[in-house]
Amino acid sequence: MKEENMKKYQEQLENLVLGRTYELMETNKKLQQEIMERRRAEETIKELNDILQRRVLELDHTNKELESFNFSVSHDLRNYLRGIDGFSLALLEDYSDQLDERGKEYLHNIRQAARCMERYIQDLVNLSKGNLFQLFFEEIDLSNLVEEIAKELQRLEPGRKARFIITPGLAATGDKQLLRIALENLLDNAWKFTGKQPETLIEFGITRNRNVEAFFLRDNGAGFDMAYREKLFQPFQRMHALAEFPGTGIGLATVQRIIRRHGGDIWAQGGVGKGAMFYFTLK
Ligand SMILES: Nc1ncnc2c1ncn2[C@@H]1O[C@H](COP(=O)(O)OP(=O)(O)OP(=O)(O)O)[C@@H](O)[C@H]1O
Ligand SMILES: [Mg+2]
């Protein structure tokens, strides 16, 4: 009886072991399947990564090509323009006695148009730079930059009565070359649109607006209608007549691109005849 019990017990045990072995085999099979699936997924990820890597390289290559294309086109166009300007000047200087006043005026107009076009090309190059260039971040004294640009503006028009109030030591991290282009454009505007005031007043500082710390550039110039405050930043959009204030309308589009490339934002406030204020943040 005892032996019979033992046998039964052994059989039960064997069945149990068999069952467990079967379960283990099943689990093993599932695991193998999972490993296979994972390997396949890994391979797919690797393939996708390779494709992505290739795309990045292609994009980089296209960017570089576009950059050099931009460079050579603007370089060539400028050379032709310099030719037009130079020969017009030569005509004015060497054949002045054979030209009447009207002829001379035409030549002046040709030179003026050549210079406008040269600036236009520079603006377009700057606009594309804002997009393509890789940023090189460093600590920058924005107040110094503003000071330098202001001095240059005043140097070019020494007769103009102007006052710059610049809060000293305002620093930021950013790409110096691009931020210089941005500030040049903002100051260029402030200088241009205050040109008809008896005294130009331009202020650079920092303020808390919309609950964020923002740099600002304020002027006491012609101002603009707030209804168009978004439009200002679109390429070739201008709120003032060309005859009154010259320009191509690309400056602020460039500034916005540059600020956004820095993870920041720019917005404007103003009123007709009440001056303008441009705010910007940098991450
Ligand atoms: N400080 C400002 N005061 C008043 N209006 C401004 C000021 N800055 C910009 N604007 C308005 O926004 C428009 C777009 O400015 P933006 O700098 O893009 O072009 P622009 O100065 O006319 O030409 P560009 O900068 O290409 O020579 C200007 O034509 C003007 O109507
Ligand atoms: Mg401008």
TrEMBL record:
GO terms for cellular component: membrane. SMART domains: HATPase_c (SM00387), HisKA (SM00388). CDD domains: HisKA (cd00082). The keyword Transferase applies. InterPro entries: BphY/WalK/GraS-like, HATPase_C_sf, HATPase_dom, His_kinase_dom, HisK_dim/P_dom, HisK_dim/P_sf, Sig_transdc_His_kin-like_C. The keyword Transferase applies. Its EC number is 2.7.13.3. It is found in: Membrane. Pfam families: HATPase_c, HisKA. Keywords: Coiled coil, Kinase, Phosphoprotein, Transferase, Two-component regulatory system. Residues 24-51 form a coiled coil. It is an enzyme of class 2 (transferase). One of its GO terms (biological process) is osmosensory signaling via phosphorelay pathway. GO terms for molecular function: phosphorelay response regulator activity; phosphorelay sensor kinase activity; protein kinase activator activity. Residues 72-283 form the Histidine kinase domain. It catalyses: ATP + protein L-histidine = ADP + protein N-phospho-L-histidine. PANTHER family: BACTERIOPHYTOCHROME, TWO-COMPONENT HISTIDINE KINASE. This is histidine kinase. It comes from Desulforamulus profundi.
